[in-house]
Specification:
This protein is of the alpha/beta class. The chain contains 11 helices and 8 strands. The chain has a single domain, classed as TIM Barrel, CATH 3.20.20.220. Helices cover 48% and strands 14% of the residues. Strand 3, helix 4 and strand 4 form a beta-alpha-beta unit. The protein is globular and about 55 Å long. It binds flavin-adenine dinucleotide. Flavin-adenine dinucleotide binds next to strand 3, strand 4, helix 5, helix 6 and strand 6.
Length: 292
C-alpha cells in the first residue's frame, strides 16, 4: 500500500511506528513479539531503519519482507550517502520483490573519517535520491525526513526549510519528522513549508521516554532540542524517583504534546519505538484517556 495515499485518506489521527532491525538473528523472536504487541494500536504503517552507509542492509530487507508477510504496510529507510546508482537500484528491486512499496529517502550521515568524496558523489542530498526513486519506481511511496529543530548542518531555519521543500517538490509524498519536544517547532516548520506552496503531509515523530540515559543518548545523536523545564523535570524524577518516575514524567509530557499536535492539524503520530512496546502502549492509552 502506498503510504502517501493512506495518509491522505485517513479521516482520524493514526499511529505509525519506527523499528530498527535487530543486529543479531537471536533477537528476532523478541523483536517480532514487540511488533505484534504494538499491532493493537493499528499502525497505519511501520518503518524499518537502515544502517549508516548501508551497513546491515540485508537486515532491513529481511525485516521489512517479514513485516509485509505479516500483513503490515511497510516503509524501508534508505540512505544514499556514498552509494552508487546501481546499488540503490538493486536494493529497490529487492524491496519491490519483497512487496515493500514505500521508502524513506534519506541522505544519511557521511562517514566520520571524511573518506567520502562529495565532489564525485552521485547522490549529494536526499532530494537526489527522491528524484532517482521517483524516476525509476514511479509507483513507490516516498517519504523524506524533516527537522523541526533544523538539521544540525543547516546554517539557518530558512535554508533548512528551503531544502526540505526541495525534496518534497522532487517527488516525496509525505515527510516524517525528527523527534522533538516543543510543539511550536513543528507548528512553525509546517507553516514555513506551507508558505512555500506545499501541502504535503508532515507526520510528527514522537519519542516515548524510556529512560533518562536513553533520552540523553538520543538527544546527543540527533540534535533535537529539549525544553529546559522538561529536562529539569526528568532529571529530578531520575534523581528522586528512579526509572519509573522518569517514564511517568515523560509520558505526561508526551500526552500533552500529542494532544496539541493533533489539535493543530497533525495527521497522526510516528512513534520512535526503540523496539520496545510498553511505553508506546502506555502512551497511546493515556492519549485515549485524555480525549474522554
Ligand atoms: C525520520 C528520520 C529517519 C531516519 N532514519 C535513518 C536511517 O534509517 N538510517 C540513517 O543512517 N539515518 C537516518 N536518519 C538520519 C539522517 O540520515 C540524517 O539526519 C542525515 O544527516 C540527513 O539526512 P537527510 O535525508 O535529512 O538529508 P538532506 O535532506 O540531504 O539534508 C541534510 C543537510 O543538507 C542540507 N541540504 C539539503 N539539500 C541541499 C542542497 N541542495 N544544497 C546544500 N545543502 C543541502 C540540508 O539543509 C541539511 O542540513 C533519519 C532521520 C529522520 C528524521
Amino acid at each position: 500500500m502506498h503510504i502517501g495515499k493512506l495518509v491522505n485518506a485517513a479521516r482520524t489521527p493514526f499511529y505509525s511506528m519506527e523499528f530498527f532491525p535487530p543486529a543479531d538473528a537471536a533477537q528476532l523472536p523478541d523483536f517480532y513479539d514487540t511488533v505484534e504487541r504494538l499491532r493493537v494500536l493499528n499502525p497505519l504503517f511501520v518503518s524499518v531503519t537502515y544502517g549508516a552507509g548501508g551497513r546491515r542492509q540485508q537486515n532491513t530487507l529481511d525485516v521489512t519482507a517479514e513485516l509485509v508477510r505479516r500483513g503490515m504496510t511497510v516503509m524501508a529507510h534508505l540512505t544514499c550517502v556514498g552509494a552508487e546508482p546501481q546499488g540503490i537500484e538493486d536494493f529497490l528491486e529487492k524491496l519491490v520483490k519483497a512487496g515493500v512499496d514505500n521508502v524513506l529517502a534519506l541522505r544519511g550521515d557521511p562517514p566520520a573519517d571524511r573518506s567520502w568524496d562529495w565532489e564525485q558523489a552521485h547522490f549529494r542530498h536526499a532530494a537526489d535520491l527522491v528524484r532517482f526513486v521517483r524516476e525509476r519506481r514511479p509507483h513507490m511511496g516516498i517519504g523524506v525526513a524533516a527537522y523541526p529543530a533544523p538539521h544540525p548542518e543547516s546554517s539557518t531555519f530558512a535554508e533548512d526549510r528551503r531544502h526540505t521543500a526541495e525534496k518534497l517538490r522532487a517527488g516525496a509524498d509525505f515527510a516524517v519528522t525528527q523527534l522533538f519536544f516543543d510543539a511550536r517547532e513543528y507548528i512553525e516548520m509546517v507553516a514555513q513549508i506551507r508558505a512555500q506552496g506545499l501541502d504535503t503531509p508532515v507526520i510528527p515523530g514522537i519519542l516515548p521516554v524510556q529512560s533518562f540515559d536513553s533520552l540523553r543518548r538520543m538527544l546527543s545523536l540527533c540534535g533535537a532540542n529539549i525544553p529546559g523545564k522538561l529536562y529539569l523535570a526528568l532529571e529530578k524524577a531520575h534523581e528522586e524517583g528512579g526509572p519509573e518516575a522518569v517514564r511517568a514524567a515523560g509520558l505526561d509530557y508526551a500526552v500533552k504534546l500529542i494532544r496539541r499536535l493533533l489539535d493543530e492539524g497533525a495527521p497522526g503520530v510516528h512513534l520512535y519505538t526503540l523496539n520496545k512496546a510498553e511505553m508506546c502502549l502506555r502512551l497511546a492509552e493515556a492519549v485515549e484517556r485524555s480525549r474522554q
